[in-house]
Structure formats: C-alpha cells, structure tokens
Design a protein that fits this description.
Length: about 100
C-alpha cells in the first residue's frame, strides 16, 4: 500500500508507442515536469533519477500498465520510484468532476 503523505512528486505518464507525455506535480500542485518524453530506457531513467534525487519519493502513475506501459513501469521500479495504475475510465470520470 502506498502512503500518499510520503510522496513528494506525483508523475503522471500518458503512455504511447513512440513517446509519452509526463506531468509531475508536488502535493501543493506545483508543476515540476511537463513535456513529451521518448519511449526509451535511458531517457526514462534520466527523468526518474533526476526527480528522485531532487524530491526523494516519486510516484509514477500510468494509464496503461501492459504493453506500451510496461517499459516505463519497469524502469521506474528499478529507479526506486513507487508505481501505480490509473485506469482510463477512472481518469475520465475524475476529469469530468473539474470544469475546463
């Protein structure tokens, strides 16, 4: 079980075949990362290592845990990040709660 109070950065990854889009937020809502990210182990590892070094506990959340989401999850785990899966339908329902 993940203790949310210990997480310093929530990094959401919208995974794709060739590249992903990542957005990292602190618990206060400050954006610390928001850009495209190539689907390559060295680039993913560099990001996870950088965020972990600066913020300590990073939670990586993906919308697809299998196939195209498997590499980011494996690299995140290896880099010492916490990982989680947020199903697309759940994400859509949460988004519907917020205007704009």
């Amino acid at each position: 079980m993940i203790e949310i109070g210990e997480v310093a950065v929530f990094l959401g990854l919208y995974v794709g075949k060739g590249e992903h889009h990542g957005r990292g937020l602190t618990p206060a809502g400050k954006t610390v990362f928001d850009k495209r990210l190539p689907n390559s182990e060295p680039k993913l590892r560099a990001l996870f290592d950088k965020l972990s070094a600066k913020y300590d506990t990073v939670l990586v959340v993906v919308d697809q845990p299998a196939n195209i989401g498997a590499l980011p999850l494996a690299v995140a785990r290896d880099a010492g990040c916490l990982v989680a899966y947020l199903p697309g339908l759940t994400m859509r329902r949460i988004a519907d709660l917020y205007s704009g």
